[in-house]
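Dear support,

I submitted the protein below through the web form. The confirmation email said the job was done, but the results page showed an empty box. After a refresh the structure appeared. I'm attaching both so you can tell me whether what I see now is the final result or a partial one.
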Amino acid sequence: MTASVDSAADKLLAIFFALFLFSATFSIAVSQVTLGIAAALFLWVSVSRRVSPFVPELRVVHVAFAVWVAWLFFTCLLGETPLRSLRLSREEWLFSAVLIATLLFSNRRLGVRLMAVLASGAILVSLYALFQYLTGMNLFTRHEMYAAPGFGYRAIGMFTHVLTFGNFFAVLACTLIAFTIGYHRRLSGRLRLLFVTASLCAAGATFLSFSRGPIAALVGTIILLLLILGRRYWKASAVVLAVLVVGVAVVPGVGDRFVNEFGIEWRGEYEGSRMFIWRNSVKVIEERPLVGVGMGNFKTHYERYLRPDIESSRKLTHAHNDLLNVSSIAGIPGAVIFVAMWLVAMWFFWRGYRVTRDTGDGEAGWYLAALAGSICFFGTSLVEATWVDEEVRQLLMVVWGVGLSGWYVRKKEGNRSIESV
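What the results page shows now:
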């Protein structure tokens, strides 16, 4: 009886995590409900069969996560609104997605199925993004569609903001492209077609957002990815580069978004420009450089450096840059801890790729996917506080789990039923 219950829990865990991955492409509400159920099932599996996610190989990573969360909570308590700040820090529960993904993706057969679910969601929403671009119709939400430069409308998907949509699909595109290149020899013809299609669709959806940050992060990450791959993958590199060039050329107005508005952003006179926002964000950091102003208090402090009659849309809640935002809410030590956590995770992905890239068994594809997705996310965070954007953040947590799954000890006695899902 106990064995059957455990087996059912394993299957339910895989099912609800798959639902989370699929719904993450279009709904923060549905995806977090399904992730919450998956987290409860994961806890059941961990306790009932003593499947510990904290294996020795990943101790450094988990310590880095814990130190970041502990420091963030500590600075919340020292701020002006401790209880409110702690409540607003609830997004840190998304680290549970890293633990679940690490376990489930360590079963490569199940991992490919989960990636296929994510790819299917990417295709579906990308087609809807194309519909939005051509028609300007938003069928599922009430958020306004903005005109695109040249022709059409900026795709927003089913999210609340076009930048969130662009960042999400840029990270997703880079993850899928890297996985498809690195793991293609282990895929069947149908799965290969699915992942190639999903990669192209996700990249196309990023372009249709007409958001400069996501597009720049996507293109920059792909260039770095091709440099990492080297000459042995020159055919795949040529195809990817050709697709990017065609994307820029075919979608009218993409280039204009960069050329026409660069000067405005750089001068920093416009109150919505990044340079203007960053200069005032530094002033917020200077107020409390050691512990920050606390989660949720950035807006109150940022307003002090604006003209009194400024429109409410310019009274921002974050610094439009992850490092500046973390420094403002958790102090400069918090930013150091944040960067250290990122470096630890990236080291594991890079080390895993270097060790497995010549084995020929496709293992390098999982690490490569995590590297590409993480680099793209970090690229978007240079011009946006992507870490506090739940839709994109939860995708990153999955990407990190994908990269850490290769380090997970799959032959532990407690993992047997997971291996059979």
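Response: this is the final, complete result; the empty box was a page-load delay. The chain has a mean pLDDT of 88.
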